[in-house]
Design goal:
single chain; six-stranded antiparallel beta sheet; three-stranded antiparallel beta sheet; 297 residues; globular
């Protein structure tokens, strides 16, 4: 179990490090195997997938950019990394910031998550962070029993921003945190950190990983003063976030949630970031364009 402590929690904290392409591949294949083994058992009471969603996992579908296809995800991630590294080298980028945005307004029930419109959160980001060069991904975080005992999906965004005008960004970040709260009370909806040029590749892989963790917030308390007659411990307004691996059935639930999305739907950019993702999206959607062209004949 991983634990993150404090008032500015981020889905980017305590990250699994995907230092190499092999690390990322192995992680993806392990999740793929877990899902397939679970579904193949077909036990009564187990989570199941319909044929269309199950088909998205097939190696035969790797040419498409299904968010549920692990072969597609591996290829898509490496393709994006190649473009990012080319951009950083060509433009001699020296400053990169990793930004996480978790506004609670985009948290949904499990049922509503299967039809979530990712364009809504992408548009929100563009409205709240104008004037910057970045690329990012929309991700879904799984809360099994928060805030009301039911499954909640927190749709959020990870961004890599280049050469930001930092004063402007701090103002925008403060405005976001003043007007929006995250799913966990007292936790900032906008957090960021500087990323060393030599160490950012594992975070790009982290950003593109399949949903991996389940999150369970808990209130931090401190011992009450001796004069207190009401309680032995009092809440501080801060939270720690228990973060462990999704269980097999929860991974299957995430498959259902992501079934309406492609990786190209989740990726977005602004400013010069558009030049990074454009060739990646073009290559990822080539099979779809080919199929559409064939239907016209």
């Amino acid at each position: 179990m991983h634990t993150t402590l404090g008032t500015a929690l981020s889905y980017g904290n305590n990250m699994t490090k995907f230092d190499t392409e092999a690390d990322f591949d192995a992680h993806c294949r392990a999740q793929e195997s877990t899902i397939i083994r679970y579904v193949d058992k077909n036990h009564s009471g187990f989570q199941q997938l319909d044929n269309d969603t199950l088909g998205q996992l097939s190696p035969r579908e790797t040419k498409y950019s299904y968010a549920n296809n692990f072969g597609s995800r591996i290829r898509f991630t490496q393709d994006l990394l190649n473009e990012v590294e080319r951009y950083v080298a060509e433009y001699k980028v020296k400053d990169i910031r990793f930004v996480t945005l978790t506004p609670a307004v985009f948290a949904t029930t499990e049922g509503d998550a299967t039809e979530f419109d990712v364009e809504a959160i992408k548009s929100w980001v563009r409205d709240h962070l104008p004037g910057h060069d970045y690329f990012g991904i929309v991700e879904a975080a799984y809360y099994p029993a928060w805030p009301d005992g039911r499954v909640t999906i927190s749709w959020h965004v990870h961004l890599f921003a280049f050469e930001m005008t930092y004063r402007r960004f701090l103002e925008q970040k403060a405005a976001i945190n003043a007007s929006h709260h995250s799913l966990v009370p007292g936790v900032e909806a906008a957090v960021s950190e500087s990323v060393a040029i030599s160490n950012f590749t594992y975070k790009v892989r982290y950003m593109l990983k399949y949903p991996t963790y389940r999150y369970r917030p808990s209130q931090i308390t401190v011992k009450a003063p001796p004069s207190s007659e009401r309680a032995t411990r009092i809440p501080t307004g801060r939270y720690y976030l228990n973060k462990d691996d999704l269980r097999p059935g929860e991974l299957v639930r995430m498959c259902r949630i992501l079934a309406h999305l492609g990786l190209d739907d989740l990726l977005f950019a602004a400013g010069s970031g558009e030049a990074i993702i454009a060739p990646v999206v073009h290559r990822a959607t080539a099979a779809i364009r080919y199929d559409e062209d064939r239907r016209h004949f």
